[in-house]
Write a structure and sequence with these properties.
Elements (H helix, E strand, L loop, with lengths): L1 E14 L2 E7 L11 E5 L9 E4 L2 E3 L2 E7 L3 H7 L6 E8 L12 E7 L4 H13 L8 E8 L9 H7 L2 E6 L6 E2 L2 H7 L6 E5 L2 H14 L2 E5 L15 E4 L10 E3 L6 E3 L3 E2 L1
Parallel strand pairs: 8-9, 8-12, 9-10, 10-11, 12-13
Antiparallel strand pairs: 1-2, 1-7, 2-6, 3-4, 3-7, 5-6, 13-16, 14-15, 14-17
Length: 265
């Protein structure tokens, strides 16, 4: 983990409020799927970094895909190509690829949760057919409606995953949430990896327990320090945390990825 400057090498708008930026940075080779970086706005009045998941890490570049949700991300969306920003990372614990060995894998991606699963899809699909790889990788991507342009769906297809699109209103793909779409598409699974809004993750946890499927979830939370010092981002757990000695875990350090059975949502 280090704090360093990163150059904006590309930027594009995927749909209303959703932006795709590639950063050239020395930390790219260290990044693992499911980790995140802190992006610091070029504004001295704003001291805290914005946690953004690593969508892809290839060569010297890290890709971030994010929703504009405040002044920090507004500033990032407005930044010019070739400009530099300060980032810190890679941070957090990512996905456990070994959990997919020999398994039928289901990726459940809810809206802006999709970026947290793309690098995982790429790495798992490269492992298909190997002894430590999955049997198959299927991804269900859920969106509010067709205006979101099913962003990243082609990237998941290009990664090698079988892709199903779902929308809340049925304007594209299957009507319903990601779990309903998986059921309608008759997609079975031995293990689930999921990221999305908290109500979706609560439903994934319930679904996995009901059906006896192992599930791993990535929790998105507003973070302050990003390194576990401030205890500003915690989730209730079934076991006591060795750091705080209570039933809490720090999302920025013990997470953002958790075994769904070990957290209380």
């Amino acid at each position: 983990m280090k704090k360093c400057r990163a150059e904006v090498v590309s930027k594009r708008k995927l749909c209303e409020g959703i932006y795709d930026i590639r950063l050239k940075t020395e930390i790219a080779p260290e990044a693992k799927s499911g980790q995140f970086i802190l992006v610091f706005p070029n504004d001295p009045s704003k001291l805290l970094g914005r946690p953004l998941c690593i969508c892809e890490a290839e060569g010297e570049e890290i890709r971030i895909v994010f929703r504009v949700s405040g002044a920090g991300t507004e500033g990032l969306a407005d930044i010019d190509i070739n400009k530099e920003i300060m980032i810190e990372g890679p941070l957090g614990n990512g996905w456990d690829l070994s959990a997919a060995a020999g398994k039928e894998v289901l990726l459940l991606c809810g809206g802006i949760g999709a970026p947290a699963l793309l690098e995982l899809s790429k790495r798992l699909c490269r492992m298909k057919g190997k002894t430590d790889g999955p049997q198959n990788v299927r991804a269900v991507l859920g969106y509010r409606d067709s205006s979101m342009n099913a962003f990243l769906s082609q990237d998941f297809k290009d990664s090698g995953a079988d892709v199903v699109i779902a929308t809340d209103d049925g304007s594209a793909g299957i009507k319903g949430n990601v779990i309903e779409a998986a059921d309608k598409a008759l997609i079975g699974a031995d293990v689930i990896f999921a990221c999305g809004p908290m109500p979706m993750l609560e439903a994934v946890k319930e679904y996995s327990e009901k059906n006896g499927i192992k599930a791993y979830i990535s929790l998105e939370e507003r973070m302050a320090c990003g390194v576990g010092a401030c205890l500003g981002c915690v989730v209730k757990t079934t076991e006591k945390d060795s750091h705080s000695h209570v039933n809490n875990a720090r999302i920025c350090t013990e997470g953002p990825v958790f075994d769904a059975s070990e957290v209380v949502l």
